[in-house]
């Protein structure tokens, strides 16, 4: 399986958990009907479909991503949905957006701008450049979780591993962490800055789709953690997080978990 195929698979599998949360976020933005928006780091286009619902048939969504393979899949997905006139895609780098100043009424980014291991301020500045004065910028990212009920010490240990610390870089200045995005917005001169957190909870009995999605989340949140856990923690992790184990946590009839996405938004005031 190629890396592109893997990313496409994980996007679909995890979407069973993420879609309701991101739909709520899109609705909370209250995007103007008929507006034109930018979806930065669009991946295979699943969020672009949600945004298209918000702006209606008179609006337009442009998705941007660096991966030609993901964009090809996104175009096929949008074509099957009959929305090729409403949603288009462009290959490009968020660090140097291939658009003129004031090209969009708003811009949003999920698990990309401010979350990926890149300096966030230049990225926010680029988004502000391409959004018209009075338009809004929204950044969203995974912000917390409780996925292993009854195992708080293990989950705490997992979340302090190199892979488990979001946004993916240890030793980063606190001011550059995603949860400090309001400070970035104010530094860029954005106004009416605000934050909103959206939660998604699931409990047993789990559908096959949700079960697969949670397994995908385990894989994405805590890959390669063995070297950073104690032998006892590693044994406990294998015991409760391996589908082959008789103590696999997703088989627990009392299983419950939740995660959150946080959206930071602000209004552009100047070109």
Looking at this protein, list some descriptive labels.
271 residues, alpha/beta, Rossmann fold, 7-stranded mixed sheet, 24% strand
In percent, how helical is the residue content?
25-40%
What is the oligomer described by this structure?
single chain
Instruction: Describe the global form.
Output: globular
Give average pLDDT, whole number: 93
| β-strand number | 7
Number of helices: 8
Kindly report how far apart the N and C termini lie. Answer: 44 Å
Strand proportion, as a percent range, falls in: 15-25%
Description of the structure:
With 271 residues, this protein is an alpha/beta fold. The protein has a single domain (3-267), classed as Rossmann fold, CATH 3.40.50.150. Helix content is 37%, strand content 24%. Strands 3-2-1-4-5-7-6 form a seven-stranded mixed beta sheet, sandwiched between helices. Helix 4 links the parallel strand 4 (104-110) and strand 5. The longest helix has 27 residues, at 3-29. The mean pLDDT is 93.
